[in-house]
Design brief:
The protein is built from eight helices and 13 strands. It has helices at residues 18-26, 46-54, 67-78, 94-97, 120-126, 162-187, 220-229, 299-306; strands at 8-12, 30-36, 59-62, 82-86, 104-108, 131-138, 148-155, 237-241, 244-254, 267-271, 274-279, 283-292, 295-298. Helix 1 (18-26) runs parallel beside helix 6 and helix 5 (120-126) runs antiparallel to helix 7. The model has no long low-confidence stretch (mean pLDDT 94).
Amino acid sequence: MNATAVNIAVLCNGAVLQPALEALFSQGLLAGVAVPEATASGDPNQALELAVRQAGVPFLRVGAGALTGQLAPWLREIGADALCCMGFPRKLPVALLSLPRLGCFNFHGGPLPSYRGPDPVFWQIRNREQFATIAVHRMEPEIDTGAIAHEVQLPVGPNDTYGLWMQRLGGVLPRVMIEFVQQLALRGGELPLQEQDGGAARYLPRPGDADRTIDWSWEAGAIDALVRACNPVYGGALTSLKGVPVRLLEVAPAPPLADRQIPPGSIVAVAADGLRVACGQGESLLLEIVYGMDGLFTGRRLARLFGLKPGDRLG
């Protein structure tokens, strides 16, 4: 079976995806790129837009309330055979899903169906998974439900933060994208697809404050995982000091406690390398980097600013 050239339109959001677009462009497969309109909170696609326009590739900004009206004529105009979504934050209308002749596919950052939802990377790091997954699936009317076309596993290291893992994802996506597109070009409408096991489906929502708040009764490893899952995308894991909200961006293992009766969340010591806090059942952690209302601080400096001493409690 001979492969035929395919034109790929991409809906994406964020500069981390630029290497994947460059891979498609270098193969002559990139038909066009669309991103969400900028918001009042910022524009993560400014540099991406500049690069795409300089390459002479059709580029589109898509408004929240006009997906079909904007995307349908655009997809026809650029002659897209398939549409690939990577980090695009909006659900596509049903009318768009059947428009490209080879279909619409989403690059999902977690295994399906057990990590459905808008932020599987957070949940995989928080749950201390040893491997995270990129799952390419056909898009259906219901979010993250379509049959799987391609799947790749990536290790999650014990020191990986959300940001570090996303950088690794950006480095691997070009290979994953080209592998998938080559299969699509080779097999077209006969691309082998694996249906998801509905009985194993689990939808995990975007984490709210409660999901990102530290419970100091957890073991040290679980707290460390939550801190890494919140760094930097959510500004750190939530706790409080003397009633003031703070966010932890980095913690480190510390020796077990000699007195296992110390309540979790209690400050054990203010040391040169950080603020040592009790957790779990006789464990402790060093608070190394903390984000407060007035900026970033080391644990030791935070202790000086708040006048913290052993016996004070967090959370």
